[in-house]
Design goal:
This protein has three domains: about 55 residues, no CATH class; about 130 residues, no CATH class; about 220 residues, MetI-like fold (Orthogonal Bundle). It contains 19 helices and four strands. It has about 425 residues and is an all-alpha fold. The strands form two sheets. It has a two-stranded antiparallel sheet. Strands 3-4 form a two-stranded antiparallel ribbon.
């Protein structure tokens, strides 16, 4: 008899008469064949798992864990809760809308004394300042003078600063009393809570986040479209040339990967500025006058041009890998059957390149929405994306919770677009070659 059995030193089918016990096949040591096969398969699975374990651990540590930390940081708000115990207790005992009485101000003064002792006034003030600008100095000043205050504390605090009676301040403190909050997500969509706790839009001069999200989406789509327009003929040329020539030209496509991103970006700054190479050339050719040079730096034009150049190889490579596999005889057959060049391209060649277009578009778009170095250098105020504001909150304002909320919304938006892409196009049609 002959059986295909996974290689295992312990598996050897006995084909003699003694190899069958009670109607079941066994191996040389008497173990049933079914159990031996299951053991061999389990051993193979464990071996495969151990082989991929280092990569799995790397992905978890460098990708999954940071994402969960970001999501947690976007709702984590312990500064007020951990350093203002008396106020937290008062808010827990009194429902929302309760007018702050002498008991509330007494609890506030006791906490201000603790802040002075623990040197946490700036930390708590900064937390309140995220939602109510100008509050940090209120807490630091109150903590410095809290030890000298005498009852009635309400009058004493209002003498220091009348802002202590602001209902908005008390609403923000009530919200901050919880160690977890979704207010950073409200701020990320230009919303806030009023003195009554209702969700309302922020003042018009502070509505910046939704505008930046919209700009990021529009510019990323435009950059994706521009890279497609430029990359398609390049990839087609590379795919139709002889292999030796196409490999030589492919070096030119890959050359930007060997050059620093900062160098490429600053090169565009030299080219695009008002007194730069392009404007000087157009003035010399008489296309524009010296007084009407085109402003291509520190605006959306600079962002689109520089990022299109930087992301172009990410569109060329998927297109080339798919076009290279298309049999040219299909187009020749269509031409022989009477189709025009345009018809043969539109109905025969182009549909076969759709998987490469899909892969390149998805890759370029995802990279574009997360870029921040190039928009920061050439975009100015009008050409910056939401990623630049995330970087600002991480390094400038140090509001990491706000940065995490913005990043979480950006991640969620990309996942939604990815889901829509899968529904409309089909992720199975996405190929890299």
């Amino acid at each position: 008899m002959s059986e295909n059995v996974p290689a295992d030193p312990h598996v050897a089918i006995v084909t003699t008469a003694g190899g069958v016990e009670d109607g079941a096949l066994t191996i040389s040591d008497g173990t049933p064949l079914k159990r031996a096969l299951a053991r061999a398969q389990s051993h193979a699975r464990r071996k495969a798992f151990l082989l991929v374990l280092p990569l799995l651990a790397f992905i978890i540590l460098t990708f999954v864990v940071p994402i969960f930390q970001m999501l947690y940081r976007s709702v984590d708000s312990p500064n007020f809760h951990d350093n203002m115990p008396n106020m937290v207790a008062w808010f827990a005992q009194n429902p929302s809308g309760t007018e702050p009485d002498e008991t509330a101000f007494t609890a506030l003064v006791e906490d201000l004394k603790l802040l002075k002792k623990n040197r946490k006034a700036g930390l708590v003030g900064t937390r309140i300042n995220y939602e109510l600008p100008g509050s940090r100095s209120l807490f630091t000043k109150g903590a410095r003078k809290a030890a000298k205050l005498e009852p009635p504390y309400k009058e004493a605090l209002l003498k220091i600063d009348p802002k202590w009676s602001d209902p908005k301040l008390w609403q923000v403190m009530r919200s901050a009393a919880s160690p977890y909050t979704f207010n950073f997500y409200l701020a990320a969509v230009d919303r806030t809570r009023d003195a009554d706790g209702k969700i309302v839009r922020v003042n018009e001069n502070r509505r910046i986040y939704l505008k930046l999200f919209g700009r990021t989406l529009v510019l990323s789509l435009l950059i994706t479209f521009m890279t497609f327009i430029l990359a398609y003929p390049i990839a087609h040329l590379l795919a139709t040339l002889p292999l030796r020539k196409s490999n030589l030209l492919m070096i030119l496509v890959l050359l930007p990967f060997w050059t620093s991103l900062l160098v490429r970006t600053t090169s565009w700054m030299v080219l695009l500025q008002s007194q730069g190479v392009l404007n000087d050339a157009m003035v010399a050719l008489g296309i524009v006058s010296d007084d009407h040079r085109i402003q291509m730096m520190y605006n959306k034009i600079g962002t689109v041009v520089a990022m299109t150049h930087i992301l172009l190889p990410f569109m060329v490579l998927p297109l080339y890998s798919v076009m290279r596999t298309i049999n040219p005889s299909y187009v020749r057959a269509a031409r022989n059957l009477g189709a025009t060049s345009w018809t043969a391209f539109r109905r025969i060649y182009f549909p076969q390149t759709v998987p490469g277009i899909a892969a390149g578009a998805l890759l370029v778009f995802i990279l574009a929405v997360g870029y921040y170095i190039t928009p920061a250098l050439v975009g100015g105020a009008d050409g910056q994306l939401i990623s630049n504001l995330i970087a600002f909150h991480m390094t400038g304002s140090l509001n990491w919770s706000m940065a995490a909320a913005l990043a979480a919304l950006l991640l969620g938006g990309i996942l939604v677009l990815y889901w829509l892409y899968d529904k409309l196009v089909g992720i199975d049609n996405l190929k890299l070659g």
